[in-house]
Amino acid sequence: MTPVYKIRDCSGKFSTGGRWPRFTRLGKCWNTLGHIRAHVRQTYSKHRETYDHDSWRGVREVPTADGLEVVDITTGEVVTTVAKLLEEMS
Predict the structure, then answer these.
(1) Cβ neighbours of residue 63 closer than 8 Å, sequence gap 6 or more
(2) Predicted local distance difference test score (pLDDT) of residue 62
(3) pLDDT digit string (tens) for 14-49?
(4) Cα atoms in the Cβ-side hemisphere of radius 13 Å centred on 34
């Protein structure tokens, strides 16, 4: 079976993806770990503030990767954590 990935927080909710993700019961699915890495780079990277063009919305806190897991929802297994992906990218 082809893996399908989601990012889960410590409350069991899933990321909606995008620049300012929320966590909901359903969340978003990613088909590859490469797509997850791209989302993590865009959203949780330490360099994110450099590229923040959303200042017209007011000051927002940069999302934290603490406690976020990447889960293969077809098996229920935790594949990695967002913190580990960020570590690999730096």
Answers:
(1) 20, 21, 43, 44
(2) 58
(3) 999 987 788 999 999 999 999 999 988 888 876 565
(4) 0
pTM of the complete model: 0.81
Q: Tokens for 73? A: 């929802």
Q: How far apart are CA 67 and CA 15, in angstroms?
A: 12
Cβ(87)–Cβ(21) below 8 Å: no
Token duo for residue 37: 């890495």
Question: Can you say whether residue 56 is alpha, beta or left, with left for phi > 0 and alpha for psi between -120 and 50 degrees?
Answer: alpha
Cα–Cα dist 17/58, whole Å: 20
Residue 81 CA to residue 66 CA, distance in Å, equals 9
Q: How far is CA 22 from CA 58, 59, 88, in A?
A: 17, 17, 24
Strand partners, 70: 7, 80
Domain ranges of the chain: 5-89
